[in-house]
Design brief:
Elements (H helix, E strand, L loop, with lengths): L3 E7 L6 E9 L4 E10 L2 H12 L4 H17 L14 E4 L2 E6 L6 E5 L3 H7 L3 E3 L2 H6 L9 H8 L5 E7 L2 E8 L7 E9 L2 H10 L11 H5 L4 H7 L3 H4 L8 H4 L1 H10 L5 H23 L6 E5 L6 H10 L6 E4 L10 H14 L7 H4 L9 E3 L2
Helix pairs in contact: 1-2, 2-3, 5-14, 6-12, 8-12, 12-13
Length: 373
């Protein structure tokens, strides 16, 4: 494949901001050239939360779509340290505000008009990655699997890559037999979405997340509630499967806060943090053929030390090496945008971007729609 300098752009279900990863990609390898982020201003963040809750009317949703597109474009030029490395292509995931992977009436919606990026960068932009997989009968997720395989698979090892964004998703790369790893990927449930919602509520909007897990570290999780929450049907649903805020966003959070009404604030955050760790481990036990030898954590939640420690405790007896992608030269915030840089590159090369057995699609599909200058 032709070598390209590709910009990947990702804003996840945590709704905190946008990550940009500038990558050099060719047929043999993939290297990170620059990484930067932009935080959502308060007004835009509140609008996106309202969109995810389904509280916007059609004209407001259209306005948010264009406002977000302009925001993506405003911050899309590389920082001074990467000047002179202008992207030749961009992959824009957009902001998911609705995702329903049901087989009968699947639908997904990512906001962020790509035309503003095309105008700012004057290069092709690939966006709307999930729709083609859903049209082919898939769940439209997970889509970072090919990137995980290319960067993190190791011959003779069973490696799991677990992204901790708003939602938690795992890619299992079992290369203990054969030349190519056996790949399984699916969403395990919540990662940071419930923790972030709790921090917004408990701090009255002053905090959008639990900084380095400080609140959770001061609290004690409530065991009876954890046992109840872990009975959720989603965790026992067999892959392929994906989820979002519809299951583990505001509706679940409201119920959880009622359940925790007698708990102190740090105990509430600790309970939701432990819920993420235990639901992740439960999915591994139920749906992976064996425990991994190495577990690589990525995404914003990998910067939350209380969450990382809670996950590590779940695997302490199995000899699993738990580390973050930082230790392997890939900053935790780079993985998701870099994955969509790769998908844009594949789209322009005319190559499929999905793995049908992980998404449930009937066939491999070219992912994304191209917008040109």
């Amino acid at each position: 494949m032709k070598e390209r300098l590709v910009l990947g752009i990702m804003s996840g279900t945590s709704l905190d901001g946008v990550d940009y990863a500038l990558c050099r990609i060719d047929g043999a390898g993939l290297a990170l050239r620059a990484l930067w982020s932009a935080r959502f201003p308060a007004a835009l963040r509140e609008t996106l939360h309202a969109a995810a809750r389904g509280d916007l009317q059609s004209h407001q949703l259209a306005q948010a779509h264009h406002d977000l597109g302009r925001f993506y474009a405003r911050h899309a030029l590389p920082p001074k340290t990467a000047r002179g490395q202008a992207p030749e292509l961009a992959g824009l995931h957009g902001q998911t505000v609705f995702h329903n992977p049901s087989r009968r009436q699947p639908a997904t919606l990512q906001l962020g008009e790509p035309a503003y990026l095309v105008e700012r960068l004057r290069v092709p932009v690939v966006s709307n990655f999930r729709a083609a997989d859903m049209a082919a009968g898939g769940q439209g997720a997970p889509l970072a699997t090919l990137f995980h395989q290319r960067v993190f698979a190791r011959r003779g090892q069973h490696v799991c890559v677990n992204n901790l964004g708003g939602i938690s998703n795992v890619t299992s790369l079992d290369a203990r037999q054969g030349l190519r790893p056996a790949v399984l990927a699916f969403d395990t449930g919540p990662a940071c979405v419930l923790i972030d919602l709790a921090m917004r509520a408990l701090s009255r909007g002053k905090l959008a997340m639990d900084p380095n897990g400080a609140w959770a570290a001061r609290g004690r999780p409530c065991e009876p509630l954890l046992r109840r929450w872990l009975q959720h049907d989603y965790f026992r649903q067999r892959p392929p499967k994906s989820t979002g805020r519809e299951l583990f966003g505001e509706p679940f959070f409201k119920t959880a806060m009622r359940d925790m009404r007698r708990l102190a604030p740090p105990d509430k955050v600790a309970s939701l943090t432990e819920f993420t760790a235990r639901s992740l481990a439960l999915n591994y036990r139920l749906h992976l053929p064996s425990p991994p030898s190495r577990l690589i954590l990525t995404g914003g939640g990998a910067a939350n030390s209380a969450l990382v420690q809670a996950i590590a405790r779940q695997f302490a007896d199995g000899g699993v090496e738990v580390l973050t992608s930082d230790a392997l030269g890939w900053p935790v915030q780079a993985i998701e945008p870099a994955a969509f840089a790769l998908l844009a590159h594949l789209r322009m090369a005319g190559r499929p971007g999905n793995l049908p057995h992980t998404t449930g699609a009937r066939r491999s599909a070219l992912l994304g729609a191209e917008s040109r200058y």
